[in-house]
Amino acid sequence: MGSPSPSPSTTSKPLPWTHEETVHLIQAYQEKWYSLKRGQLKASNWEEVAVTVSARCGYDHSEPSSKSALQCRHKIEKLRQRYRSESQQRRHSSWPYFPLMDSLHRGPLPISARPPDNNNNNSNSNVINDEDEDEDDNGNESDEENIYSIRSRSINYLLRKPTIVNRFAGIADAGKPIRKRHRDFADEVVVEEENGDDDDEEEEKGRDAVVSELAAEIRKFAERFIGMENRKMEMMKDTERFRMEMENKRMELILDSQKRILDSIHRTFASP
Q1: Can you state the angle between helices 178-270 and 141-159, rounded to 10 degrees?
Q2: Cβ–Cβ under 8 Å, residues 72 and 49
Q3: Phi, psi (deg, nearest 5) at residue 18
């Protein structure tokens, strides 16, 4: 009697994000996001981020412990929500990923303005916090593809209400307190996202302008080519007409010379 087979309905719960995986995810996302000029990542870009995270953690991307592209995208969304929440607090944030997320959106800070690094002290508690943040990752991943764009628009709409702050203000004036920079950064995240949308629109307008110029040049070239062909046909017609005229004159000269020869012979034999 064989042993009973496991139930097909049982599925393994995804492993929580470790501190190392989260750090490599933020760094890989920053590299890819900057390479796209802070534009929105596509599915293929997220797949590249997932492969990069697995490689830096020493995993094989096909292993169950490696994170998928959808899990990476969902984790970044959670980290951004947590970062916006931490940025709005008046006190200094003790969240271990705050410096990395701050560097992600602001760029690297001066050494004198960087907050103390608490990553080593809180590495054990990070796994517990990540388990709370990853609870939603066990839901239906197929629905995630459909609601992702709607959720992003809703978050962007809520964030567009505060006043826009110059993102270079904190770097230009190093004497300002760091806490104020953290409070004002939620507004600057919106500026960067809107700048990404504006860059996409400018690129699309630039492509349209290039296509229009190319079409105009092709139209001018076609007009010049047609004009040259018409002139060539007119020259061929003139050449053919001149050749026919010369041929007619040659035939007339031949007939005239033959007529004169016959007249001369006739006068010679007709004389007594």
Answers
A1: 100
A2: yes
A3: -85, 170
